[in-house]
What does this fold into?
Amino acid sequence: MSFEQWRERARELLKLGVPPAEACWTDGQTQLFEESPSRGTAINAPRVPREFLLLAEKACCYRHPARWALPYRILWRLNTGEPNLLEIASDPDVLKLRGMAGAVDRDVHKMHAFVRFRQSEDGAYVAWYEPVHLVVELACPFFARRFDTMRWSILTPDRCAFWDGRNLTYGPGLSQARTPTVDSVEELWKTYYANIFNPARVKLRAMTSEMPKRHWKTMPETALIPEMLAQAEARVESMLAHSRAGDPGVSPAQGASELVEAGGTLAELARLAGGCQACELYQKATQTVFGEGPSSARVMLVGEQPGDQEDRKGRPFIGPAGQLLRRTLAAAGLGEEELYFTNTVKHFRWEPSPSGGKRRLHQRATVRQIQVCQGWLEGEIRLLQPRVLICLGATAAQTLLGSGFRLGRDRGRWIDSPLAPRVMATVHPSFLLRLSDPDEQERQKGLFLRDLQLAREALE
Ligand code: URA
Ligand code: SF4
It folds into this structure.
């Protein structure tokens, strides 16, 4: 029985004044109980609210024997003294109707997401799918719009849908045994999937919870996932082993991008960078100072390079400039749980103080050193995917936003950039420390705070 047929039948029963308890709905037909049904008053012009129709059409696709009877009972009640029934959210019948309609809605969405076509020998496309509910007719107009130039069939145990490029028609359901399974098409699918596979994007847990196991078996590519994940892990391990062995063979750009592709983590990227010897800066520095912060941080702050204290401790932004930065971030309302700190260059470049002594003086990295090291920063951005990216000072800004970037002109503004939804450059905190005029320093600290407050607001 189709929904249209149900509507017609329901109208007839209302006209006859048949109360819901007297009508027996089965999938094939409606039977009245033989024994003298107690007829009520005839309802000749029933009230059928639009909302009810929308809900009933979906509920009637719910795979349950009560799918026809429940909407009729509600229709009856709507017309026998309870015209506002649908507004009573706690009514058991209404609850059930809404629950069924919701489940059907979700099932339609799943069908849209998980139907996989294979090309059959005659060039048409065929998909086998097992929906939870009886949603073929609700779901298929979407495929007709989406794949309007293809000829396709969607076969299910309940109904089959056919699109010839013009008309959408339906037929009875099929058993899976008769599905055209073209092995070569299946192989093609797998090769295709293995090639586009990126474990960094496979949110396995989300996928397994989103997608019931029943769908996995109709998706040939899912058979490959455990194996591909294992291979990806092995690739990360072997990259790390090479870097521990001091192999300087890979550039940061290559190492980072391979690790990202293989689904590595920020911690693994840090370990990989720990062995970096891609430019000469590692020789005089104590250690690589990699970025730091939770992988769920939504704000990334990019400085220039580690300073003296950062180099000794191996952590970014812990010296005087770092402390000023952290204080200002706190004042702007940004908590550490939202913050990831890193630098454009990961090793400290310094020269001995000309006056002798132990002091190590900060030296700017060369254009080439910045360029080589940039691969690590790009890897960090790809893995963290911050919502807000803040460049501190001209080195970070020009590295990430282009050499034409002018801090004096564009600091504190949101910049259009593919790196993150919100990108801004502001001054470097060490600039504030160098200002000798106290009034000017106060004024600049105020501007710096304002910029970081903008970043906080961008999280809301
Ligand atoms: N300045 C930077 O740019 N980065 C640090 O980590 C410390 C000071
Ligand atoms: Fe590698 Fe960057 Fe250190 Fe150079 S500065 S050795 S590129 S981590």
Summary: The two ends are 50 Å apart (CA to CA).
